[in-house]
Amino acid sequence: MVEEFYSIQGEGYHTGKAAYFIRIGGCDIGCHWCDSKVTWDPAVHPLVEADKIVEAVARTAARSIVVTGGEPTLYNLDPLCQRLKEKDLKTYLETAGTGDYTGIWDWICLSPKKQSPARPEFYHRADELKVIVHEPDDFHWAEEAARQVGPHCRLYLQPEWSRYQQMIPSIVDYVKQHSQWQVSLQAHKFMRIP
Q1: CB neighbours of 42 closer than 8 A, spacing ≥ 6?
Q2: Is there a cis peptide before residue 70, judged by omega within 30 degrees of 0?
Q3: d(CA 125, CA 13)
Q4: In whole angstroms, how far apart are CA 20 and each of 5, 77, 126?
Q5: Higher pLDDT pick, 36 / 99
Q6: What is the model's pLDDT at position 90?
């Protein structure tokens, strides 16, 4: 595991809600614009027993747990989710959907990447589709991804942080013309909280 901390969700549907974050090491995608490159090499980050993670969660007021990465689907998340569910906690997954589907999830945020498409089961199970917009062609990719999710899935376009100023006007215009989409911002970065 790379890190765990109790904070505020800063992206997507659950923006502004308190959540305990579990950031898992290892990523098989390697986006050049990634803001969590420290997670890429799993050998650098030790495995942590699920019970120890749940004990850390219990020391906070957290009721919602976000498992993110790196890419969490590189691991079997059944044991962790089982122990969290035993404590009656809500479980949220943030994933590119490239690995196996494991775990018990109350909410899945799928953020697929062009260079490493998600597995079909993640598109079918996604509650939220979050496409990172780094360049104009990403709107086309977003529409391709949106065609694969279910009708209940919420659709978000989020500017890649280092290109926020360049991309936000285009995203706003796009959402105004395609109202099935919403804008997602990295609100935690604007608030300067982890």
Answers
A1: 25, 26, 70, 74
A2: yes
A3: 16
A4: 6, 16, 20
A5: 99
A6: 98
How do residues 1-44 score in pLDDT, each as one tens digit?
Answer: 789 999 999 999 999 999 999 999 878 777 666 667 666 677 77
Helix (H) or strand (E) holding 159: strand 154-159
Q: Is residue 159 within 8 Å of 138, Cβ to Cβ?
A: no
Grouping H, G, I as helix, E, B as strand and the rest as coil, residue 143 is helix
Domains and CATH numbers, the chain: 3-191 (3.20.20.70)
Quick one: which H or E segment has residue 176?
A: helix 164-177
DSSP 44: G
Report the DSSP beta bridge partners of residue 3: 23
* Helix axis angle, 78-86 to 50-58, nearest 10°: 30
Q: How many CB atoms lie within 10 A of CB 16?
A: 10
List the alpha helices (DSSP H) in 77-163.
Answer: 78-86, 120-125, 138-146
Q: 134: helix, coil or strand?
A: coil
